[in-house]
């Protein structure tokens, strides 16, 4: 029998016994947990300034504000106001409420915007320096030959 974790040789399909023993060994070995998080582990947090983390922060903040307007409008409609009037009042009421209720979301959004701006500004300065000839090209690109 092959050791757990080694690739199978032969027919290409591991036997069910080998699969079960390797799954059990992977679940018990601490090294396997460090390399790949389990199914219950939360996804890694995106790094600040990353396009995905900025998009996520914007999406969460906008969604929270839209839900707040919808909830307020729904309550006003249950009271008996027409839809258009309820939406207008909900928009006016939701603005100051969102400033208070969603302060952590707004702070995160501001932080992500600042990080994205700083990253963009640094890239712009690197490119300008490279075009002026002040700085060597990045390591991932070869130097131009004369």
From TrEMBL:
Basic and acidic residues bias locations: 122-133
Low complexity composition bias: residue spans: 1-38
Protein keywords: Membrane, Transmembrane, Transmembrane helix
Signal peptide range: none
Database matches in InterPro entries: DUF4229 (IPR025323)
A Pfam family assignment: DUF4229
Coiled coil ranges: none
Pro residues bias locations: 135-146
Record-annotated membrane-spanning stretches: 54-77, 83-102
UniProt-annotated stretches for the region Disordered: 1-50, 120-146
Identification of the protein by name: DUF4229 domain-containing protein
């Amino acid at each position: 029998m092959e050791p757990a974790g080694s690739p199978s040789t032969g027919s290409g399909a591991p036997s069910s016994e080998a699969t079960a023993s390797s799954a059990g060994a992977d679940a018990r070995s601490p090294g396997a947990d460090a390399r790949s998080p389990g199914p219950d582990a939360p996804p890694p947090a995106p790094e600040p300034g990353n396009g995905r983390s900025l998009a996520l922060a914007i999406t969460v903040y906008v969604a929270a504000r839209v839900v707040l307007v919808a909830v307020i409008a729904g309550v006003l409609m249950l009271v008996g106001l027409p839809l258009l009037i309820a939406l207008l009042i909900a928009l006016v009421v939701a603005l100051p409420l969102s400033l208070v209720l969603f302060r952590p979301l707004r702070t995160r959004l501001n932080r992500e915007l600042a990080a994205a701006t700083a990253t963009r500004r640094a890239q712009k300065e690197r490119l300008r320096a490279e075009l002026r000839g002040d700085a060597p090209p990045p390591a991932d690109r070869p130097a131009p030959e004369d």
